[in-house]
Structure formats: C-alpha cells, structure tokens
Amino acid sequence: MKAENKHSKIITAATKVFAKKGFFTARISDIAKEAKVADGTIYLYFNNKYDILLSVFEEGVGKILGKTQKLLAANDDPVEMLRIYVIEHLTAMRKNKNLAEVIQIELRQTNKVIKQYRDKKFSEYTGIITTIIQFGQEKGVFRSDIHPDLSKRILFGALDEVSRVWNVTLETHYTVEEVADQVLTIFLRGIMVANN
Amino acid sequence: MKAENKHSKIITAATKVFAKKGFFTARISDIAKEAKVADGTIYLYFNNKYDILLSVFEEGVGKILGKTQKLLAANDDPVEMLRIYVIEHLTAMRKNKNLAEVIQIELRQTNKVIKQYRDKKFSEYTGIITTIIQFGQEKGVFRSDIHPDLSKRILFGALDEVSRVWNVTLETHYTVEEVADQVLTIFLRGIMVANN
DNA sequence: ATTACATGAATGAATAGTCATTCATGTTTT
DNA sequence: AAAACATGAATGACTATTCATTCATGTAAT
C-alpha cells in the first residue's frame, strides 16, 4: 500500500514538474522535492528519467482511453459517438492541464524511441476516430469520399490545437461546451451526407 | 559575403541537427560539424544555443509568411484565399521537413520564453486565417455563427497534424493536393453558408 | 511485555561524465 | 602589419545515477 502510494505520488509530481519545466530542464531533484521523497527513492520505483516520462504517459492515456471506450460501447450512432469522443477529450485535457502538456509537448520530442512509443500507444486512442468514421460511412451517414485516416488527423489535430491553447494563453473565455460545439458543427457538417 | 554565407550554413546545419536530434540532445559540436566550421565559429554569429533556435524559426517562418502574404494580396475571394493558405502551408511543410519539425516540435517546448516567443511570432502567421474568415463573414460567404478565433485553431490544428505525420511515419501515400483537398472540403463545407 | 534480531524501504552525499562557452593562438584579408 | 575572421582544446558548471548507511517496522525469543 505504502509502495503504491509512493509510486503515484512520484507520478503526480513528475507530471507537474515535466509540465512546468519540460522533460530536459526538469531535474530529478525537482521531482523528488515535489513528491516529498529523497532523490534516490525515485530509483526504487523507476529505472530512469525516461521511464518516469513514459509511465506518466502510459497511465494518463490509459485512463482516458478506458473511459472513452466504455462510454462509446453503449452507443451506436456515429454522430453521437463523435460527440462523446470530442467532449471527453476536451474535458480530460482541460481537467488535467499538466498531463495535457506532457502528452502534447514533451512526448512529441525528438528522441525517436519516445516518439515512436507515443505514436504507437496513441494510435489506439486516435484510431477510435477512424473506426467511428468508417462505421458512419457504412451506415450511410458520412460521405464515402472522406478518407477515414486523413479525417482522423484533421479532427484530432483540431482538438489538439484548441486544447493546447488552454495551456499557453489564458484563453479561458471559451468553455468546453462552446469549443466542442464549434468543432463538431464544422467537422460534422464537413463529413456528413447532405440531408436537406 | 563570406560572413553571410557562413551564417546561413550554420542555420541550415542547425535546422537539420535540431530536427534530427532535438534541441536539447543536439550538441553544438554536431551543428559545427554539419556546417563544417569550428565550434567556436558558431559563437561569432550567434549568442548561444537558444539564439540559434530562434534564428532558425525567425528566418524560416519569415519566408513562408512573406510568400503567403504576397499570394493573398492579389486575391479577394475568401474561399480561394483559404485554398491558397492551405496549399502554401502544406507545400512548405512538405518541402522543408526539417524546418517543419523544428517549428512543430522543438519550438513548442516548455521554456516559457521560447513558447511565448513562438506564439507571438506565429500568431502573425495563423492570424491570417482569422482575417480571411472574418472577411468571408462580412461578404456573407461564411456563416456568422462561426468564431473566427476558434476556427482558426481548428483549421491550423488540422493542418499541423496532417503535416506533422509526414515527419513521423512514412505516410507518403497522400499527396499535398489530396490532403489539401480533404482538409478544404471538410472545413469549407463546415463554415460556408448553405447555398443549394 | 521487553529485548534482540531481521528486513528492506528510504535517504542524500559522492561519483562520473557531459557539454556550452571561452579564449589563446593561428590564418586570411585589406 | 593591422584588422578581421576562424579554430578547437581547455574550462568549469551542472546533474543523472549510485550505493553505503540509516531507520521504521515486524517477528521471535525470553
């Protein structure tokens, strides 16, 4: 119990420190201080600095992925499914800005191993969009001339950028609902079969 | 001449090295080697490592911005203007993958100074989208319930993500034209006033 | 219930290596 | 022969990781 507790304390601290200072500028001693443990203790729970970063990502995305999949399972309307995905994503990013920062910035970084790891792990999450779009096309709700893979990038990129801004400027004047509504309005109108 | 020549040689080399290894992992000696100058020579042209990064960005974005503004000046159809912007951006990102990498990844980094600098400089470039959208709304071509600021993020995020992928996977199987077409189809249908 | 012993989690000072930046020296240009 | 430019080895500051030691908790023996 105590061990598990300390593990998450370090994860939480690291998320915060990485978000604030960036992976390379963050010091192990910063994380230790934030988590209120000794520097050495961190190495009882993680192999090295990279391992901490990957764990932050793994556990963070894991939670979001799990929740999203659960919510979507109870649904079979493509439009409604996209709505759920968008709202869940924006809500999660807004709620945990530190995690958002790590996912959006630190994990993209250069290091090929990190980058490929992120893309692999992440593709499970963004792949959901592709699946929904294909499903919608089969149902005849979404236009068939839309490339599911490309439009996945288009939607995800839009979500990524609008939520990234929450971490940069103090553009708090848009709520999750407003943003979700704009993104969905534009994207859905863009991919749906005309019906009026 | 010789000085100017060396300056750009270093910029080009740095762009390549930063793109490949990332800002923090890149060594000054790597850049020097790539540019075929001595380590110390770099400090005759730049104040420090950060200065090199900012210069890469400044000069790179400057060129793209200039070209885009020039092309747009000769036009007054909002739809056509968006098309030009999208195609120019994708073409530029595709053509200079190293610069794209630096802009998209390295410059987002954490360091608050860097980040704010990027956002300030960049907002001039992405702000063009906002202007075009507002222009289109005034002309009654784009829906008035679209937030120009938000939809700027939506379009730019989409562009950023689709072009980022060119640097990660070997997803070369979409051409600039195909990608531009999908993005524009979806986005324009999303923001235009219905006219049928 | 007190004492002796055992365990392994936690500590943080010391290590070992890295690299941005400087500068004494050399080379080229005017 | 100045002045301007270029070199790259040496410097010095910085920090991830290690590991000898401490300490808290549990178990066994008396």
Automatic annotation (TrEMBL), chains A, B:
Record-linked Pfam families: TetR_C_4, TetR_N
Boundaries of every HTH tetR-type domain copy: 4-64
Any one GO molecular function term: DNA binding
UniProt KW keywords: DNA-binding
DNA-binding segment(s): 27-46
Name of the featured protein: Transcriptional regulator, TetR family
Source organism: Desulforhopalus singaporensis
